[in-house]
TrEMBL record:
InterPro entries xref list: Flavoprotein-like_sf, FMN_Rdtase-like_dom, ISF_SsuE-like
Similarity-based family: Belongs to the SsuE family. Isf subfamily.
Source species taxonomy: Archaea, Methanobacteriati, Methanobacteriota, Stenosarchaea group, Methanomicrobia
Lineage top rank: taxon: Archaea
A Pfam family recorded for this sequence: FMN_red
Keywords for this protein: Flavoprotein, FMN
Boundaries of every NADPH-dependent FMN reductase-like domain copy: 5-158
Gene3D superfamilies, A to Z: 3.40.50.360
Protein name, as recorded: Flavodoxin family protein
Needed co-factor(s): [4Fe-4S] cluster; FMN
Protein's organism: Methanoculleus caldifontis
């Protein structure tokens, strides 16, 4: 793909939840900029936590729960955006379990995450967005990735599925963020 491609990871267990709908809007922006996108839904897998077995030097995780298929897609992507619902003021557990294993495989093998462009998006009913964004940024920044900003932090308010799309400022922020991901990827290629 001439303009590059972006993998979007949706961390919600709700297939049509707010996070999925917010990421769909990001994908539309990226595609309007000529990038190819694919969205992976963690709702379709059960993600195990890292067991510190140390076998990830091969470039794959030893746990057999479908994460290696996601890692293979990230490897091929220029961009990696992670959207998560906020649970008790932090990211959903499965999201951090996935990111910790993805990061460990990258570090233990060929640093495939290095210089990929992306960032986190947090979706919640009322509170915990900024702590969640900070939590996910720890993954991006230790893995040599490039995170563009936006006109606010990537946080969207919503509870019942679909409500997030009514958060006009939140949606404007994440659309701008997606536009900045596209902007950077196109210039870096
Ligand atoms: C276990 C659990 C914990 C939650 N904790 C918070 C929270 O700390 N702050 C908040 O504002 N909303 C919280 N929520 C609400 C969700 O973040 C909110 O409904 C969000 O829209 C879910 O995203 P989704 O539709 O993509 O799954 C929680 C929901 C669940 C199921």
């Amino acid at each position: 793909m001439a303009n590059g491609n972006v993998l979007l990871l949706c961390g919600s267990p709700r297939l049509e939840g707010n996070t999925a709908q917010v990421l769909r809007e990001c994908a539309k922006v990226l595609e309007s900029e000529g990038l190819k996108t694919e969205t992976v839904l963690l709702a379709e897998t059960r993600i195990l936590s890292c067991t510190a077995c140390g076998l990830c030097k091969s470039g794959e995780c030893a746990l057999d729960d479908g994460l290696n298929e996601i890692i293979a897609k990230i490897r091929e992507a220029d961009g990696f955006i992670v959207g998560t619902p906020v649970y008790f003021g932090t990211a959903r557990g499965d999201v951090m379990a996935a990111l910790q294993r993805i990061g460990m495989v990258s570090m233990a093998s060929d640093n495939f995450l290095s210089r990929k462009v992306g960032g986190p998006i947090a979706v919640a009913r009322r509170g915990g967005h900024t702590a969640t964004i900070q939590e996910l940024l720890m993954f991006y920044l230790i893995n040599d990735m490039i995170v563009p900003g936006s006109t606010y932090w990537n946080m969207v308010f919503g509870h019942a599925p679909g409500e997030a799309l009514n958060d006009e400022e939140g949606m404007r922020t994440v659309r701008r963020f997606a536009g900045n991901v596209a902007f950077l990827i196109k210039r870096l290629r």
